[in-house]
Every structure is written in C-alpha cells, then in structure tokens.
Amino acid sequence: MSLLNLPDRPGPAPRTRGPVPHGQLDQIAPTPLQEELWQRMRSLSGVYLAPTHVPYPEARAIHLAPEFGTGPDDAFIRHSREFAHQHPPQDGSVHLTLPPAAKKHVTDLGWGIPHPIQNTLLLFGPRDRDEIEVAWQILLASYAYARGRAHE
Known about the structure:
It holds the Pfam family Luciferase. The chain is α+β, with helices and mostly antiparallel strands and 152 residues long.
C-alpha cells in the first residue's frame, strides 16, 4: 500500500477540538492499537524520543537525527527535528508533517485534517487492524519527507 492507493476512511470524521490543543474527541483508537503504532514509530531508523515542541506536554514525540537526512523546513515541527507526535490515550491521534500534495490527498480521503495554525496534519487514530496499516503508511510518508526522500 502506498499513499497513492489508500482507501477512503469509512464513516464520518471524528469530532475534533482546537486549534490549541488540536485533537480528536471521539472514535478514539483502542489503546493496544495506539501502543502498537507508537512502537512502530519509535523503531524507525534514526529516530530518537524527545519532548514535543507543541503545547501538549502529554504527547510522545519522535525526532529525526540530522545524519539520517534533512527534509525541507516544513518537514519538521516548529523548526526542530520533530516530525510526528502521538497524543495521549484519551485522544490517540497523531500530528505529523507531509508534503502539501500528500497532506491534501490524505485529507481528501478522510484520514485526517490539517492543523488550523501549524504545518501539520492531524491523523485520526486507527480504530481497527486495517486502519493501523493505513496510518502506518501515512507515517512512513512523513518519515520519508523528514529524511528528504520520496516515500520508500
């Protein structure tokens, strides 16, 4: 699966809040799926864990070491090395960066919404096994963007 052949997200979009904090209010991902996604995120080569650069201190953030590639400035959150963070279990969504065309494509398919004041996309938390695979493909596209590469 690649971003080009992602399916439409079934059902209505979850309710959200924001802009600060920006997050998901319903259709919350089951905690085991949130944890699986987090374990995948933190296992990417060149990724290190550090506090998020946004005012959501409970979020868990991944950053990319400079030697693993340098994407454009908007591949990172607030001029840092952070390219994605996962919100706490009561929310379960993920903010991440994507190239503009990819962000529009993911939004058009219903998998997330752009942040109203930052360069990120709010990726809705996965509700089941199929959705975790879609979320993972979107996260891999964010990772590739941060690395300065096309989606691998």
